[in-house]
């Protein structure tokens, strides 16, 4: 009986552990080669601002009197940049949200082994691929990206963890701390030649993590005055920081800006699930290489009524999946797309040549294909050959062949028009020359008899 009990216990333990082996294994693969667009990027540096816990409607909705609680961002949306809604995924939490934004992949379910506090495996990110990244914000978020970076080029500046008091009467001081630190940083850089030299290099990233809105939302709810006032504080602080950054770099027009959120929040101050108030977050992008506001007169393909509620139906809205922001940031400053990214570059945000867009999209495709090839090879090596079934991508191959053949014809006939025009112009020139020679000769023959008579 004891033996039977032990065998039964072992069987149940094996079945229980198998759940983790089946459903909670990391989807990440390693061994891919990073790829970047070979053309010169439009921006030398990127500023990423993440307002933690900011709902899309809280930012875009106007006040009853028709004004905006975020006048600076509203001005950017209407004149300077491209805007949309970034769609997050469950779980709508800070760590997976930031990983999706900066690394380009969604929740690694194997993180359950770490209590959902950090990713159990190393991963690539835009910060890792940058030349230098300076971060200011929460000690819960920033160290995660410095830890996985190769080399010593991700610099984090955090306030004490004790400052994150969800029972605080006003947590906007967390965001004020970030803005103050950033302003002091650029001020000190003017007299620090080493730091200034690093800042003037290309492929740099500045990351501002603003936790105050999320903290006030938990403590007072998103409809509270504390939450709404914090949004206004972020808008004013952002305007001031942008002015300081532009002044530091001499208004060279080489800075790109991304403002977004990691997740939203329900009316009762929680997040983590999939309600629209949690998954719909704002996205505003402007600066170097970014398409300016596009006015539209026709209805846009969004039927949820938000455009009318936000009074933005006259401006083109470009929605993205949250992971799409990573390849966008990488393309703007010319760094390799994170090798684990599953994001798709949102082309409407780019203001550049068709060649740059094509090269960027090609880089994105190659980077995703690299993951597929590594994953297939790994699975093939760990599976008995007669049990292995490859992914059926016959139709995709047929489509690739079709497009490749069209490309062959395109390049085969690439010079045909130019050469044809050259031949036609050459023939016309030759014909014109022959006609002129004939006319000249004929006129000369007609003059000779008259000249002879006069001489006689």
TrEMBL record:
The chain crosses the membrane at residues 6-24, 417-439. GO terms for cellular component: endoplasmic reticulum membrane. InterPro entries: Alkaline_phosphatase_core_sf, GPI_EtnP_transferase_1, GPI_EtnP_transferase_1_C, Phosphodiest/P_Trfase, PIGN_N. Pfam families: Phosphodiest (PF01663), PigN (PF04987). Its EC number is 2.-.-.-. It is an enzyme of class 2 (transferase). Pathway: Glycolipid biosynthesis; glycosylphosphatidylinositol-anchor biosynthesis. Residues 406-449 form the GPI ethanolamine phosphate transferase 1 C-terminal domain. Keywords: Endoplasmic reticulum, Glycoprotein, GPI-anchor biosynthesis, Membrane, Transferase, Transmembrane, Transmembrane helix. It is found in: Endoplasmic reticulum membrane. One of its GO terms (molecular function) is mannose-ethanolamine phosphotransferase activity. Gene3D superfamilies: Alkaline Phosphatase, subunit A. It comes from the Eukaryota. One of its GO terms (biological process) is GPI anchor biosynthetic process. It is a multi-pass membrane protein. Ethanolamine phosphate transferase involved in glycosylphosphatidylinositol-anchor biosynthesis. Transfers ethanolamine phosphate to the first alpha-1,4-linked mannose of the glycosylphosphatidylinositol precursor of GPI-anchor. Belongs to the PIGG/PIGN/PIGO family. PIGN subfamily. This is GPI ethanolamine phosphate transferase 1. It comes from Amphilophus citrinellus (Midas cichlid).
């Amino acid at each position: 009986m004891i033996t039977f009990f032990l065998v039964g216990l072992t069987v149940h333990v094996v079945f229980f552990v198998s759940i983790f082996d089946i459903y909670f294994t990391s989807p990440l693969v390693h061994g891919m080669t990073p790829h970047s667009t070979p053309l010169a990027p439009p921006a030398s540096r990127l500023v990423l601002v993440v307002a933690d816990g900011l709902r899309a409607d809280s930012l875009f909705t106007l006040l009853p009197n028709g004004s905006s609680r975020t006048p600076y961002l509203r001005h950017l949306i209407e004149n300077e940049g491209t805007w949309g809604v970034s769609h997050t995924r469950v779980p709508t939490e800070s760590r997976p949200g930031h990983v999706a934004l900066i690394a380009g992949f969604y929740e690694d379910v194997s993180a359950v082994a770490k209590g959902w506090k950090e990713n159990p495996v190393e991963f690539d990110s835009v910060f890792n691929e940058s030349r230098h990244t300076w971060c200011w914000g929460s000690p819960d978020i920033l160290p995660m990206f410095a830890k996985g970076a190769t080399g010593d080029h991700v610099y984090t500046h955090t306030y004490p963890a004790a400052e994150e008091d969800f029972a605080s009467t006003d947590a906007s001081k967390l965001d004020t701390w970030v803005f103050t630190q950033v302003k002091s940083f650029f001020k000190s850089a003017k007299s620090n030649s080493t730091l200034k030299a690093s800042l003037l290099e290309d492929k740099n990233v500045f990351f501002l993590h603003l936790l105050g809105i999320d903290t006030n939302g938990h403590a007072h709810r998103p409809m509270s005055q504390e939450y709404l006032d914090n949004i206004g504080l972020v808008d004013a602080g952002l305007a001031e920081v942008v002015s300081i950054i532009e002044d530091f770099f001499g208004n060279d027009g080489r800075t790109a800006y991304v403002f977004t959120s990691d997740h939203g929040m329900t009316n009762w101050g929680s997040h983590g699930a999939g309600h629209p108030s949690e998954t719909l977050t704002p996205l505003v992008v402007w600066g170097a290489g970014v398409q300016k506001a596009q006015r539209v007169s026709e209805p846009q393909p969004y039927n949820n009524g938000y455009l009318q509620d936000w009074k933005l139906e006259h401006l083109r809205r470009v929605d993205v999946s949250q992971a799409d922001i990573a390849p966008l940031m990488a393309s703007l400053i010319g760094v390799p797309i994170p090798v684990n990214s599953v994001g798709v570059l949102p082309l409407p945000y780019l203001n550049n040549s068709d060649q740059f867009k094509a090269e960027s999209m090609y880089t994105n495709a190659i980077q995703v294909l690299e993951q597929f090839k590594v994953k297939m090879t790994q699975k093939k090596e760990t599976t008995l050959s007669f049990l292995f079934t490859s992914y059926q991508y016959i139709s995709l191959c047929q489509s690739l062949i079709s497009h490749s053949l069209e490309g062959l014809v395109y390049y085969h006939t690439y010079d045909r028009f130019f050469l044809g025009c050259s031949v036609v112009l050459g023939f016309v020139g030759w014909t014109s020359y022959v006609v002129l020679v004939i006319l000249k000769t004929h006129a000369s023959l007609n003059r000779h008899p008259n000249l002879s008579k006069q001489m006689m």
